[in-house]
Amino acid sequence: MKLLTVLMLAALPLFCYAGTGCKLVKEVIDWTIDGTLSPEAYVEHLAPYVADDNGATAEALMTMKECFNNQTAETQANIAVMMETIYTSPQCKLFK
Ligand SMILES: *[C@@H]1O[C@H](CO)[C@@H](O)[C@H](O)[C@H]1NC(C)=O
């Protein structure tokens, strides 16, 4: 959970960028949070951006997606709220 938090913080400028109407980043966030999207389908959606490293990146992404899918619907909904809150926050104005 700590690692997840650190990753989220590191990715803050990216999430902020979503507020500017960058459709791709918004889509990736939506795909990540969508608990009905399978890890396999998730990696397929992201295929153009997955490194060609014998599947290591794809594998890591699938594990991460499985972890998201394993959360309760309530937690997934809360993550969506958190993302929305982050990229509409005053701190994110810097990136707009
Ligand atoms: C997700 O849940 C399944 C079933 O409980 C478990 O086997 C799997 O290890 C979990 N995956 C992750 C990444 O937490």
- Give the % helix: 55-70%
> Which oligomerization state do the chains in this entry correspond to?
single chain
> Which range does the strand content fall in?
under 5%
Largest sheet: none
Q: What's the gyration radius in Å?
A: 14 Å
Give the cofactors and ligands: 2-acetamido-2-deoxy-beta-D-glucopyranose
- Please work out how many helical segments DSSP would assign: 6
Q: What is the general shape?
A: globular
Distance between the termini: 29 Å
Low-confidence stretches: none
Tell me the layout of helices and strands.
Layout: H1 2-10, H2 12-18, H3 23-33, H4 39-46, H5 56-69, H6 73-87
This protein binds 2-acetamido-2-deoxy-beta-D-glucopyranose.
Structure characteristics:
single chain; globular; 6 helices; mainly alpha; 96 residues
Structural commentary:
By secondary structure, the chain is mainly alpha-helical. The chain has helices spanning about 1-10, 10-20, 25-35, 40-45, 55-70, 75-85. The longest helix is centred in the C-terminal third of the chain and has 15 residues, at about 75-85. The protein is globular, with a radius of gyration of 14 Å. The N and C termini lie far apart (about 30 Å). The mean pLDDT is about 80. 2-acetamido-2-deoxy-beta-D-glucopyranose binds near residues 66 and 70.
TL;DR?
By secondary structure, the protein is mostly helical.
